[in-house]
Amino acid sequence: MEFDKVLSTILSVKKPWIIREIDVHKGTRSVNVYIDFERGSTFNCINCEQPCKVYDSTYRVWRHLEILNYRCYLNIKMPRLSCEIHRIITLDKIPWGRNNTHFTHLFEQSVIKLCPQMNISAIAKHFGEIDTTIWSIYNHQIEKAKKNNLIFQN
To answer: Which of 34, 108, 126, 149 allows an S-S link to 20, with CB 3.0 to 4.6 Å?
Structure first.
């Protein structure tokens, strides 16, 4: 099986999304995975749920978990949609991460799993990130858990 197909399975890349390119950098021990959508794809409007054509797009980058000790970055082509009712709108949800952060769901889950075992500074050092980044992930996940009644609130 080709590596891009293996990676598609690991990352759960499903239509209309496709892996367009994989760029490995041995010197920096990083891999950039470029995720695109198939030509002619439609996405539902975030307001009215009607299928919309893609108006244009731009790449955004999310840090993902390491792959074979290489830092992994998902470069996802984010479409802006042309809705007949709402005009030009930006797709606000992707399967891999939150739109207002630069980390995938799995990366954030890995951070949270380490919280009972390590302090925030140690987690930041472990992932090669700054502590304010780790604090923002932690705070978001705590607020999400409170909202979903998954943790006790005073």
So the answer is: 34
Contacts of 26 (CB under 8 A, 6+ apart): none
Using left for φ > 0, alpha for ψ between -120 and 50, and beta otherwise, residue 128 falls in left
User: Strand 70-83 to strand 30-37: parallel, antiparallel, or no bridges (unpaired)?
Assistant: parallel
For residues 38-45, average pLDDT = 94
> Residues 62, 63, 64, 67: is their CA dihedral positive or negative?
positive
The answer to whether the CB of 85 falls within 8 A of the CB of 48 is yes
Asked if residue 93 lies in contact with residue 60, where contact means CB atoms within 8 angstroms, the answer is no
Tokens of 5: 């197909």
Task: Count the residues in the chain.
Answer: 154
- Per residue in 92-116, pLDDT tens? 888 999 888 899 999 999 999 999 9
